[in-house]
Amino acid sequence: MENITFVRLGNSLVRHIRVVALLWVFGLFSSLSVAPSYTLPFNGSWDNQVYQVGELSNNSLWNLSGLWDPFQKRIDSHHANSFGIMFTSVTDCDGDGVSCDKEEEDGTDPDDPCDFILAHQNCAPTTAWKNMDCDGDGVTNQKEKEDGTDPLNPCDLIVEHQNCTVPDSWKKMDCDGDGVTNEKEIEDGTDPFDPCDLIVEHQNCTVPDSWNKMDCDGDGVTNEKEVEDGTDPFDPCDFILEHQNCTPSDAWKQLDCDGDGVTNGKEKEDGTDPLDSCDFVWEHQNCEPSDSWKQLDCDGDGVTNGDEKEDGTNPLDPCDYNPEHVTLPQSGGYLTVDCDGDGVTNGKEKEDGTDPNDPCDFILGSQSVSPSSTWNSSDCDGDGVTNEDEKKDGTDPLDPCDYKPESVTLTPSAEWNALDCDNDGNPNGTDPNPLKATAMDDSGSTPALTEVAINILENDDFLPNNDGNNVGITSLSQIGGSALGTVGLDAQTGILSYTPTLEESNTTVTIVYQVCNVAVDPNVCASATVTIQVGANTLDAVDDSFSTDTTGEGIVGSNVLDNDTLNGAPVSPGDVILTSTPTAELTINEDGTITINPGTAEGTYTIDYTICEVSNPTNCDTATVTVEVTQGTSNVIDAVDDTFSGNTSGVIPNSNVLDNDTLNGAPVTSGEVILTSTPTTELTINEDGTIAINPGTAEGTYTIDYTICEVSNPTNCDTATVTVEVTQGTSNVIDAVEDSFSGDASGVIPNSNVLDNDSLNGAPVTPGDVILTSTPTTELTINEDGTIAINPGTAEGTYTIDYTICEAANPSNCDTATVTVEVTQGTSNVIDAMDDAYNADTTGGAIAGSNVLDNDTLNGASVTLEDVILTSTPTSELTINEDGSVTVTPGTAEGTYTINYTICEAANMENCDTATVTVEVAEGMANIIDAVDDAYSADTDGGLITDSNVLDNDTLNGTPVTLADVILSSTPTAELTINEDGSVTVSPGTAEGTYTINYTICEAANMENCDTASVIVEVTEPMVNVIDAVDDSYEADAEGIIPNSNVLSNDTLNGESVTLDDVILTSTPTDELVINEDGSVMVIPGTKDGTYTIGYTICEASNSENCDSAIVTVTVDGIDDDSKIEVNQMLTPNGDLKNDFLFIRGVDRIKSSTLKIFNRWGVAVYEGTNYDNINNVFDGRSRGRSSLSVNDYLPAGVYFYIFNYETDEGSFTDSEYIYISR
């Protein structure tokens, strides 16, 4: 080996040999960085043996053969940049580029060109070697050298550079150890050197463990396990999560296999499934979800995941979604959860048609899961009881009127307060007992005979009608009690007034009343008892003062009872017991007069007395009488003015000026007084007191005075004036004659009449001749017909009463008389109980219309329950009730039964009579037949009265009778005949007038069950024109005017069709139908299917009294809801886009409209025109005159609307309630 040393100087190499030669190298060595000495092989020539020595900074290789020129110029070898290379000469036996010496050293075969260590190549391989394929991979050694692949490694090559025949051995090799031969991989187009680039199905040789343990796709599951699982070992998202048996790659961790927006790595940390697009932590989404994930609905709420992302709702929470964005069928977990917590799954709510997001919209029977705590503590129906407590109580949490009051723990809602659960007219909020209409007993007290007023509704559930809170109509009625006095019931104020009778003094009475709300059907009622303590009669003994002289004996005109009262009325001796203890000077006698004891000196004296009520001896009062005794105190003389009338000559009949004059209160007699008078030109008072009209006195009114003086004391005088009206021809002499009668203590005295013995000009008077007047006394009353009645409670005794009769033709011609009545015990009124007979059904119960008192009399007058006391002993079959009705015991067999009863006069319990009631019991005997009076008009031409039928208004058990039901009988009169068919005929030539005819109908099945009625016919001059309104019928399948309808089309006037000019058409609209002025018939919008009627009348235009009426029947069927104009009555402005505004169906058919909405106090909260469901709507906010601003939502509750609108069919008004809920 030869060592050659080079030195570098600038860009030149200098060879250090014995003979220095210079090598010029230009422009290549500016930054050479190699060792200072190299050993280079040399094999005969520089070109072949010296081929590289180092690297330049620009990575160029030296090619000494191209650079070496030892003959150019010399370069100093001691230059700082010089270096040396040792060149050694070598020998390569097999041409593989490794010297023989090196191969021997390496232990490779120096004669085998394919047995060497590539890194030990130290000389240039031969061309033959270069063209060889030592490793049999189909790429020549030279190409592999160029490619930088290993020519000794059959699996280190560039397949595309295979440039020689590929041996089968290489084809059958599996370079990458993936179980697929190299040949197959080349066929498949996979990389034979990439163990993770293959088609698994093409594995055709033994798969090494190394490949099995690899994780080609980095998903954490080895290739072997994926092949076992049937998953793709090259798809990082195709694996079984539970089979992950190695650490996933970072690349896999950054992937999002299920597209849910959470990387696989994050899902591994969270413990969620990276292969389940709906198993992730919502808050951990850290990448963009896939489009397929966005189209999914993970929680089954019907809203896609993508829409939920945009809405900000949770796609994993089936109860967190926007209902407006539901685009898919709700399914899966959504159907099994209970979003609103009401205990009903969402799926069941969908079946039921309730709102799964509204905890108060559900069907109670559908609850299948436990409600939420929020629902339990809520109060869906607003009744103040939590939903949970209602469930425990077994009441309905959706029914505000179904709850237990003792369970109320919350404040009821305003809506509940506005309801009226018990329909008593008092809203729950003010009702003491909202669930049951209740009337509470009341009590009061009052003095005797004094009216008392008690507010009986004050403690009841019901409100008086004048209470603004009353949502019903209250009625009051008396249904029982013991009270006999006057009862007044005022439903407007709730006041019961009661005035007790005299008999009720010092007793307790009861009044049972019933209060009802009659605005609902059926009426809601309750009853209670009012107890009234009636005080004792008010007895008032009033102090008296008298004066007298010392002559003693009784004081004239004195009576201590004169000014005493019982209940404000003067007492009578029979009312009270008078007691008094005489003093030395005074004595009060039993009759109330006062006597001065003899020898009493002048002076003022007092004496007390006490009066006690006869009927209540404990009711007493005491008064003091003061008497002034003076010397010579005169008797009291009183001349009283008189008035008479007479003709122009002679003494006036029955005139006497002394008749009304008194001495010490007693009528004077002519022997007690001296009468003096000075005659006038017209009048003279005679000595006997009569008055004479002087002859020639003209008509007129005249006066004359007279004086009377006491005979025993001529200085004791008094004067009076007599007035006489002188009229021409006042010649009738009227004479009222005194009467005397006797009777018992009650009612009209039989055969008593004060006129019987009175006369006018000597002839008996008749009631038409005179005017009878009389002032009743406590004991007696003279009736207008002259009979005399003894007032109830009158004690035995003799009583008087005055009366006056005046000539009817000359009311100033009068006379007065006195009636004396002796009242004795035992002179009984005539009481008469009459036998009765009824029919009844075997079903029993009260016999309709039965009352045993109906034909009973007292003194010939019908008795009442107040007149008599009714007693009867029930039998097994019959009972006579307190009110006189008769009841048959249920189950009573067919047959005839009797029962007795007795009535006794209430004022005289010994005055009684007994009668027998006979009842025939049989099947169907209880039918009630009712013949009702009729009235017709006809003209004098006679003949059949048009449309007359006496049976039209008659009923059997409340149902109109037919000719088959009854037998009609009637006796014709000269003017009228009732025909067999019930029509009425007027005899021809009957004069104008009003005529009556009776008829009887008897039940065909029970000829003893009959009733009679009267027919009244007014006969007038004949009407020329005959008008006939004929019934009509139509069918309608739409609202509005019925096509081709005209009620006049079949009506006639004198047999000719009528026109609008002929008649005046009138009709009252119903809730469903209207007859228009032109005769057309209109169906009101909103009318439901059904059959409806409406009446109308036509009157002759020229004779408005000539009229006839008819009925129009309309059958409504199949009205299309789309054609209806209807106001939705529910409003829920809560933003859920359901009923957020008041929807009116059919507004597109309305030409113009106005809508007003009022709150419960009548304040307008909305006013608008031309409602359109779009811009002009009521959305629950105030738009009226209420105190709320226009941006305030109205409180939940009941409101009232009035909707006026006009369509092509006409103008209409719709009014009803609406309900606002939240």
Automatic annotation (TrEMBL):
InterPro entries reported in the protein's UniProt record: TSP3_bac (IPR059100)
Annotated protein name in UniProt: Gliding motility-associated C-terminal domain-containing protein
Origin superkingdom: Bacteria
Chief place where the protein resides: secreted
UniProt entry tagged with the keyword Signal: yes
Region annotation (Disordered) ranges: 290-403
Annotated transmembrane regions: 21-40
Keywords, sorted A to Z: Calcium, Membrane, Secreted, Signal, Transmembrane, Transmembrane helix
Annotated organism of origin: Flagellimonas sediminis
Phylogenetic placement of the source organism: Bacteria, Pseudomonadati, Bacteroidota, Flavobacteriia, Flavobacteriales
Compartment list: Secreted
Biased amino acid composition, Polar residues: 365-379
tRNA processing keyword on record: no
Biased composition (Basic and acidic residues): 388-403
